[in-house]
Specification:
Chain A is built from five helices and twelve strands. By secondary structure, chain A is an alpha+beta fold. The chains are: A alpha+beta, B alpha/beta.
Chain lengths: 236, 367
């Protein structure tokens, strides 16, 4: 990620906002209050899916949820796990109540989880892709009335918007916002996260609690992987 | 070379239809007869059986009329396979191709193996994904060392559900699973749904890892359809192989169908999803990953009959079924047990049973 580009873009977008803010990597301080950042929640596709699931209710009822994530070798495996667990609870607006997981050499995870209303969830994670390979990420919600997915539903590899097959270069692009041309999706998510926090100032206690909770759920996943047992996630 | 005279029992198996299309053109077989109970005659897929194939109401009647029969395909509901197998053994049929669920009763399974051995029968199990070209390519790539040591696998065998209008037995726990066993305490559903229907995914796990399951954990979600079918429609499985590879399997009926009325056609369009069947596999190794889409070959249209986004599989799709018949024919002629035989398949049945036990207890089951 290009931090300078993120900062300049956020400053530009917030130029007319009177708030005094400072970005510090995993947090942003706004008028003296420190907010944790959760940029993965701001992926434009997930941001579009969430109200379809929770407000317009197009699936009527979600029955199962599947998350698949393949990242480059060297990517922080446990950070990815934290992000995917938070994404699960955020997108379904439900708490995880049980988990059964297996982790292999801290590079792959297979996990089956259940939420409080009985939605069955399947998480797979692998940090095995060679350097330079684009991540493969997919989130799938299946309900009584069909499916919602952040990918083309019958293809395995993410489809991009622009493909350049040049003489000496092959490039792909998927730009989400004309104000952020040139930013990769992770940079767009971070800009969105900062600007939305500055605009809306959500309850910081709730945000901090959710960060703590996901750390606890992550511990439960690790415990299940270590013991080979189903772990009940307490505190719901 | 003399053709092998073959008959099919019942033809109501989920996988019977592809053989209706393959058998007439297969150079090793002469398809002479099929038994179809009168109550099943209306089933849409049965309408494409060629006229020259003689149809009988019972298996006994068929066997009486064709004493020179060489082979039989057992293609009824799962509950029928054991009885049909015994009948074949009693009537001297030496060659049997049974659909993917011979029986979940392991005593009966062992009895089938005993009958096969005592009667010198060649018995093949229909696990057609073993003959899939994508599966074969993935295994070759893995074995070439392209991704190093295998760490984890993800297999999605997700499909539409053949509704009772099409195949009445698929939502009947007794006929599907072979006995009526509740999924778990407090759940009004029974064994016999998507998990029963998709042993391929378990077999592929063993195929890719060259190992056996050490343990499995499985759980069910609420059903995807509001019709209150008494079987499970959605399951996730997490398995650990003896060689340390971990496996996630999704065998769910999570691809919805068109809602309007009974299915009248086997052609594309009645599925509410571009592809009615997905078999996707991800192999994650220390040095990389291999992603495979076994049902990739399609052309798409939005035309008749439903104007939905539909896939028509291209020529070559279904190549699993011709090699299955090739393998069976070769086994018959050489009097060798085929590549996919009762012994190989036994552990697949055991693992599926273990998954049901895990659903029932809420705990992983060690095999």
């Amino acid at each position: 990620m290009n931090d300078q580009l993120i900062l300049e873009t956020a400053k530009c977008l917030l130029a007319n906002d009177p708030a005094i803010w400072e970005w510090n990597g995993d947090t942003v301080t706004i008028d003296g209050t420190v907010y944790p950042l959760t940029p993965w929640r701001y992926h434009r596709r997930l941001h579009t899916i969430r109200p379809l699931v929770l407000k317009t209710n197009v699936l009527k009822k979600v029955c199962n949820y599947k998350s698949q994530r393949l990242e480059q070798d060297g990517t922080d495996f446990f950070r990815c796990l934290h992000e995917e667990l938070d994404t699960l609870e955020w997108m379904l607006d439900e708490k995880i109540v049980s988990v059964y997981a297996a982790i292999n050499e801290n590079k792959t995870l297979n996990a089956i989880l259940k939420t409080e209303s009985g939605i069955l969830c399947n998480l797979t994670l692998a940090t095995t892709l060679p350097q330079g390979t684009a991540p493969v990420v997919r989130h799938e919600f299946v309900g009584l009335e069909g499916m919602i997915c952040d990918r083309s539903i019958n293809e395995q590899i993410p489809v991009e918007a622009v493909y350049l097959f040049g003489e000496n270069r092959t490039e792909t692009y998927t730009d989400y916002d004309s104000k952020m041309l040139g930013l990769i999706p992770k940079e767009v998510m971070m800009v969105d996260n900062i600007t939305q926090l500055v605009y809306h100032r959500p309850n910081v206690t709730v945000l901090n609690e959710s960060v703590k909770r996901i750390q606890y759920v992550t511990d439960c996943v690790l415990r299940s992987a270590e013991t080979g047992e189903v772990v009940t996630v307490e505190g719901n | 070379m003399k053709k092998i005279k073959i008959a099919m029992f019942s033809g109501t198996s989920v996988h019977a239809a592809p053989y209706f299309h393959e058998l007439p053109y297969h150079d090793a077989f002469e398809w002479v007869a099929i038994s179809v109970a009168p109550k099943d005659r209306y089933i849409p897929t049965l309408q494409c059986i060629p006229d020259y194939v003689k149809m009988y109401e019972t298996e006994e009647e068929l066997l009486d009329a064709h004493p020179d029969l060489d082979a039989v395909i057992l293609a009824g509901c799962n509950e029928q396979h054991f009885g049909h197998f015994k009948l074949c053994a009693e009537r001297g049929i030496k060659n049997v191709l049974t659909m993917k669920v011979p029986t979940f009763d392991m005593d009966k399974y062992d009895e089938m193996q005993r009958l096969a051995n005592e009667n010198g029968m060649v018995v093949q199990v229909e696990l057609e994904m073993r003959f899939d070209q994508t599966v074969e390519r993935m295994k070759q790539l893995y074995q070439s060392g392209a991704i190093g040591k295998l760490l984890s696998i993800e297999i999605n065998n997700t499909t539409v559900m053949l509704l009772p209008q099409t195949l009445p037995w698929v939502t009947d726990p007794q006929q599907s699973y072979g006995e009526t066993v509740p999924l778990r305490e407090g759940d009004k559903r029974f064994r016999g749904g998507c998990l029963t229907d998709h042993p391929h995914a378990f077999d592929l796990s063993r195929f890719f890892t060259d190992s056996e399951f050490e343990s499995v954990y499985a759980d069910v979600c609420p059903n995807f359809r509001e019709a209150d079918y008494p079987i499970e429609e959605g399951v996730f499985v997490l398995g650990k192989m003896k060689n340390g590879v971990t496996v996630t399997i999704d065998p769910s009926y999570s691809r919805h169908e068109h809602k309007l009325g009974p299915l009248s056609s086997d052609g594309p369009g009645w599925e509410g999803y571009p592809k009615r069947v997905e078999v996707n596999v991800v192999l994650n190794g220390e040095k990389g990953s291999i992603l495979g889409d076994c049902f990739h070959s399609g052309v798409y249209h939005t035309g008749l009959p439903y104007n939905t986004y539909a896939v028509q599989y291209v020529d070559g799709f279904g190549q699993h079924y011709a090699p299955t018949l090739d393998s069976f024919a070769n086994a018959i002629r050489t009097r060798q047990q085929p590549y996919i035989n009762l012994e190989l398949h036994r552990n697949n049945m055991e693992v599926v049973r273990a998954c049901y036990e895990s659903i029932s207890t809420g705990k992983p089951v060690h095999l």
